[in-house]
Each structure stands twice: as C-alpha cells, then as structure tokens.
Amino acid sequence: MFNPAVGAHEIDLMKESATLFSFVYPAQNPELMDLLSQKKATVLAMDQVPRVTIAQGFDALSSMANIAGYAVGLTAFMYKAVVLAANNFGRFFTGQITAAGKVPPAKVLIIGGGVAGLAAAGTARAMGAIVRGFDTRAAALEQFKSLGAEPLEVDFKESGEGQGGYAKVMSKEFIEAEMKLFAKQCLDVDILISTALIPGQRAPVLITTAMVESMKDGSVVVDLAAEAGGNIQTTVPGELSVHKGVTHVGFTDLPSRLPTQSSTLYSNNITKLIRAISPGTDNFYFNVKEEFDYGTMDHVIRGSVVMQPNNVPVAAPPKLKTVKELGRGEGRRGVPLQGQPRHLPACTLEVGHMTPWRWSHDTPGTLEVGFGTLLGLGLSAPNAAFTQMVTVFGLAGIVGYHTVWGVTPALHSPLMSVTNAISGLTAVGGLSLMGGGYTPTSTAETLAVLAAFISSVNIAGGFLVTKKMLDMFKRPTDPPEYNYLYMLPTGVFVGGYGVALQAGYNIEQMMYLGSGLCCVGALAGLSNQKTARLGNALGMMGVAGGIAAALGYLKPTPELLAQMSAAMAVGGTAGLGIAKRIQISDLPQLVAAFHSLVGLAAVLTCVAEYMVEYPHFATDPAANFTKIVAYLGTYIGGVTFSGSLVAYGKLQGMLSSAPLALPGRHALNATLMAASVGCVVPYMLDPSYLTGITCLGSVSALSAIMGVTLTAAIGGADMPVVITVLNSYSGWALCAEGFLLNNNLLTIVGALIGSSGAILSYIMCVAMNRSLTNVILGGYGTSSTGTGKPMEITGTHTEVNVDQTVDMIKDAQSIIITPGYGLCAAKAQYPIAELVKMLSEAGKNVR
C-alpha cells in the first residue's frame, strides 16, 4: 500500500530478493503481485496457509477471525468496534423482568458459521441474547446448535461444503431461497452479524438495501466481511454509518482494535511457520518441492508460497480426494487452484502436475515391464494348463481390486472376516490329497486330513463371526430378515450338481465358476449395510459349492468319504463352538486367530503335495514348477501362521501391545529372508527326497520365525493393518494351492482375497497417513527408529470423577457421547442406551 508518511509504496521500500510474510490476497491484488515480482521477492501469504491439521498453528486467518468474533460478543463491555453498535442499540442483550414490566432479550442473527461467527454466537448466547445462526454447511449448523443457537435452514437441499473449510458459491435456486429467509428474519431480529466469505472472491451480498430498511429503528448490523466488500449492501467499509435508522458497523480492522491480543497471536503464527518450514536452525531457508503429499509440511510450503524470484507461483492444492481416487493415482499431488494472479503465464501454473514427458516415459515403462513379465511366463510355462491358470489368476485379481474399493470403512472388519472364512477353501487342497480308508495310511495323508480339519474350523467359525459382526449394526427398527431362504438356491446349486454327477456329467469347472462368482458377490455384498448379509450368504454358497465340486471330482470311496466327512464335521463343530463363545469385543482378534489356521493349512497342504508328487518328478515336465510353487506356498503359509498368532496375542492382551524393539531386527529379518531364498538352491538342484523335505521344513521354520519378528515389532494400534496384510498373504497361499492342484476355484478365490486384502491394507494406511512399508517394518513407535530426544508432552490436563460427571450432565443441554474401544470392552452399550433415553426424555440433546 502507499505510505503517505514517506511518500512511497511500501513495496518500493523492500530490499531486492527479500522474503515477505504477510496477508497478501494474491487473487484480489494483481498490482501488488506485479510490484513484488519486480522486486524478485519470495512471498509467503498468511492467507494462503492450507487448512490442514499440521498447519493449525500457522493459521492466522483463524486467529484473527477468532478475535473479530470475540469482539462482537463483548460489545456491551469493551470499547472495540461493536461497542458502538451496543450503544446505539440502546438495551442489554439479556432480557429483564422488573416491577415496571418485562424487557425481551435481543434477537441476534449470525450469518456464517466460521471461526468468527461461532465465537460471536457463543459470547452473544452467554450474554443472554436469543441467537440464530445460518450457514450453507451442515457441519456449521450443527456447531451453531451445540452453542445453544437456533440453526436456520432453507427448504432447498444443497451442500455448501467448499475447499479449505470455507463455503462454496451456491446455486441460483438456493440463493433465492436463502434471500427469502433473510428477508423474513430482518423483520424480527435486532442485531445482525454477517461473516460470510468465499476465498479468492468478493464477499457475497446477502443482505440487500430493502432488507436493511425493513429492520426496526435502532437495530444494528455488523459486517465482518467489510474488508472483502461486505455482505450487507448498505455497509460503508471502514466506517460506522447509519442508514434509515439502522446502525452499520463496517470496520475493516477489528483485530487491530485489540492490538495486544492480535499481535500476540499473529506473531505466534508467523514464528511457528518460520520454524516449521526451515530445516536449519541457524539459517532460515526452505525448499519448494514439485511433488508432495496432501497434509504434509511440503504441502504447507507449496500452499503458502505465492511468489518466488523466478516468478513461479505455487498455489494451494485442491481438497483431498477420496481413498478410492488416491488408489487410482488421482489427487496425490497438488494442482493449482483457479484465481491465480493474472500477470503470470499459464504454463507456470502446471508445476504441480507430472510433466508430459515424465508421464509419457513412466507409463510405457510400466507397460514394458508388464508385457515382458507375460512373455517370460509364457516362455517358461510347463504346459497349457499353467497358461490358463495364469489367465484366471490375472482376471480374478482385477475383479478383487475393483470390488473392494466400494466397501464402506464401517464394514472393513466384516469384510476381513468373510474373506478369512472363504480362504478356508484350503480344505479343498486337503481333501484332494487325503487317502486311505477310515483313517490315513501315510504321513502325507495325515497332513492332508489335518489341513482339511483346520480349514473347516476356519470356514464355520469365520462365517459365524461375520454374522455376529453384522448383527452389531442391526437396529430395533430394521425390518425382519429371512436369511434361511438362501438355503433354497444353495440346495439348487449343490443338489443340482449331485443329480448331474449321478447322471454321468462332469461339470466341476462350471461349479468352480459358480462358486467363484459367489465369492465375488460376497465381497461386493459387504460394500454396504443393505447387502452385507446377502454377501455373507453368498460366501457360504460359494464355499459349499466348491467343496461339493471337489468331492464330486475326487469320487472317494465310502470309507474315504467317511474320513473326509468326519474331519470336516469335527472341524466345523469346533469352529462354531469357538465363534459362539467369543465376546463381541474379541471378534477382531478371533479373525487374526482364524488367519493363522489358513496359513498352517497352506503349509501342511504344500508339504503333503510334495510328498505325494515326489515319485513323479523324474518324468513330469512340470516338476520344477510344482516344486517352486510348493516352496512359495510353504513360505507364505509360515509367515501367515506365526504372524497371525502374534497379532492375536497382542489384541487379546496375552502379549504386550508395545512394539518389540529387537536389536538389529531389520538385519535379522534380512538374514531370515536370505536364508529362505538360499534354501531354494539345494531344493531345486538336489533331486533327493531327503533334501527336498529338509528344505521345506527349514523354510517352514524360517518363515514362522520371520512372521514372529515382523509382527512383534509392530505396535498394537497397527494390528488392524497387520491383519489385513496377513489376510492378503492367506489369499496368495490359496493361489499357490490352486496352481499346485490345477484348481481354478482355489486360484480365483486366492486372487480375490490376495488383491482385496492388499487394497484394504493400502486404504487403512492412507487413512493413518502412513505407508505400508512403514507399518510392516515397525517405522513408528520403537526406540530404534530414532536417536533424538523424544517429544515432551507439555501442558495441563483436567480430570473429573463420577460425581462431577453427573453434575455436568445435569447442567448441560447438549451432550455428545463418543464411543470407543473402552465402551465396547466394558460392554456398556446397553447402559449407555438407557442413559441416552433418559436424558432425551428430560429434554436434552444427546448425540
């Protein structure tokens, strides 16, 4: 701005190549940006600091708005801006009842539920006024309500949520409806406070001249948006004015009228920003990165810097995309917003995007690797069946990838449970290798019957656990369910196959297809509450059809069928018994325990397959393929088995939830991995049975140890992610069985579970702002991750006892209950329900 004291523009007084921290509003001040660019200045606009969690301490807009709103609320007591409005209003905010009569309280309308509006609402309400609040955002209306103000809404449904916590520009129809509401309110209210702003634009005109003229004489309007043009048409920015008996407070410097408070907060904002963005402590400097993740310090720098010496601006990124969009490569980087300074060339606004050359280079490179891998698999394929199995694997993986994105976060746990139950199809592998009569006659057959037994525990218990999880979402008002009717299509599916089998038809592949589609439907059904129980039923249909098809294909003798039936019946009964006795709060850890059974079944099946197929290796052209798949399946199953047990122990409280910081654990894990890979050499080169079994036993032990060391180093808070990763592992183990047995169903289901578990792990990591590598390798929470002094917790906390809590509940009109794990573990949901009912009947607002 022009400084009359020195007769020059203040920008002209700056040194060349200086760094400026200030409120700039670049979109509204292109001339200012021109002058700054001539000075080759680096400009950090305090008004452009992104409104993300990490930048809360730098948000000067909120600090100043809070002061402005506070000034509004204390008009009756402080000679700051709105004290003039209070004087002109002529009476107290609160009502009075005297011998001479009653004086009603002042009626205050606040437009805009931001920091200033809410601060004004709270203080005006505390002073005894009747407060009404309006905002286009549903969340802001809820906040008005929590402060004791009456939220006003229009009869038109449209969300006003915009970027950075601001409201967006509404549609013409919505604006017409709100103008009618404002016109009606102006006839009734005594004081009107308007705080509505839209970033990068002039403040919207919400109160017209006609509305102001309809207000009662002596009314007061306070336009906190006067600096941006004003929300009230008759406001004179920067002045106190009167129009047709209505006093207008249009000051544009409300924060500066509380200089000590404003200076303290603003200096804190700038100091914290400077210290946060500079890597060095002796010299101030910072780097503006071309690529950054949303919500990080790099994001704060990119959002705040609006001018650099090379005239390249860096604008704040758009609103954070959904996890689904992030997973598809969208929204991970910042892109410029509209409303950039007009003096800059358009090409400089694309700095946040990947360059065309980089995009054109990386995409073909990825395709080259993919096509090369396919060609390599084709050249190394032992037979046509392998190629067909790879095709099935690829297509099923794609289906699983796209299916899991639609699952709502509330159903992530049931999704893990149902995929865990479906992965019990490892029973098919055990059934395929069983032999003998009523009892097994060899070591391989014993391992196979154990695999079938363990898998049956997982199947029956897993589906019952899923049902119990879904029952937690049931409400008393939900319509009745008739899930038993799903037995009819199951009977048609399995019974029809039995009839076809008796007639001499071999339709196992179609049964596998039907079972695979049912498993796909199970994952898709878990995407929302309405179809979740259907998804669980489809999963049971798929598993039943798959096992029936496996038995039909094997055509066991009556004695062997009795052995198979006994193993599965005993296992299923055990699974149901475990799932029935488990408490609601213990369901997540039970899922982890069931995961361990899948891993163990995979190990047993792969070892048994090696034993059974060993005599044929000398003449089988696919012998090497069978051996390597058995080895991989054993390794994956071992990690899944032991890792799941550790996760169960941590969640159940049997093991400490704190991460186990073993000295040199990364080196230990690397050594275990190297030893596991090293065992492949003698396993593949030495054709002896003893060497092969020894190597499989060794990799089983090494992988089990590695599962323990990996999972033990992860804190209990990260166990949900660990469970999803292990869920994915169980899918890949199932795929290994499918390739071993040339079974399409196992390959389809394994690819579904493996890909869906991997994507679910990614979704949960994004929600925690963590990488999967960081979680799995114990990046947080262990003493070995850093050598500096740990962060000190400063400040004070307030404790309350039961009696104080009761008093606070009695005095409160609005109560918010935030349920957590403690409430679930204490089984307090029913007492809470009774408490909510009692408080609601007492007229309290309980949420």
Automatic annotation (TrEMBL):
Pfam families documented for this protein: AlaDh_PNT_C, AlaDh_PNT_N, PNTB, PNTB_4TM
InterPro entries: AlaDH/PNT_N, AlaDH/PNT_NAD(H)-bd, DHS-like_NAD/FAD-binding_dom, NAD(P)-bd_dom_sf, NADP_transhyd_a, NADP_transhyd_a_C, PNTB-like
Keyword annotations: Membrane, NAD, NADP, Translocase, Transmembrane, Transmembrane helix
Any single GO BP term: NADPH regeneration
Enzyme Commission number, as recorded: 7.1.1.1
Source organism, top-level taxon: Eukaryota
Alanine dehydrogenase/pyridine nucleotide transhydrogenase N-terminal domain residues: 4-68
TM region positions: 389-408, 415-435, 447-465, 485-504, 510-527, 534-554, 560-579, 591-612, 628-647, 667-685, 691-714, 721-740, 746-767
Molecular functions per Gene Ontology: NADP binding; proton-translocating NAD(P)+ transhydrogenase activity
Gene Ontology, cellular component aspect: mitochondrial inner membrane
Membrane-topology annotation of the record: Multi-pass membrane protein
Residue span(s) of domain Alanine dehydrogenase/pyridine nucleotide transhydrogenase NAD(H)-binding: 86-250
Localization terms from the record: Membrane
Gene3D superfamilies, per the entry: NAD(P)-binding Rossmann-like Domain, TPP-binding domain
Record field: catalytic activity: NAD(+) + NADPH + H(+)(in) = NADH + NADP(+) + H(+)(out)
Family: In the N-terminal section; belongs to the AlaDH/PNT family.
Protein's recorded name: proton-translocating NAD(P)(+) transhydrogenase
Organism whose genome encodes this protein: Merluccius polli (Benguela hake)
